[in-house]
Design brief:
Elements: H1 2-20, H2 22-32, H3 40-60, H4 63-92, H5 94-101
Length: 102
Amino acid sequence: MEQDWMATAVGLVAGALGSSGFVPQVLKLWRSGDCSAISSRGYAVTVSAFALWVGYGLLIASLPVVLFNSVNFLLSGTILVLTLRSRRRTRACPADGAAARM
């Protein structure tokens, strides 16, 4: 019984630390709008992986796995959406995109 609590506690701390790494990236992209260094393909794979981890967490009934992979899915999904939106705007109006980066 105590081991279950300890494993959950370690999972919650690990998940919180792992998820916190995405927050500065989301904030920087949100504020600056500069997504030029972000790989949309890489984030598409990452978002897909987190979706699968959520499914896995549900199958094994693990709160830390479900909770923090859901958070990571939302944060990395936000990065992906901001990146795709930025690239779409840059293609539609290249002069505006170049001016925004100066």
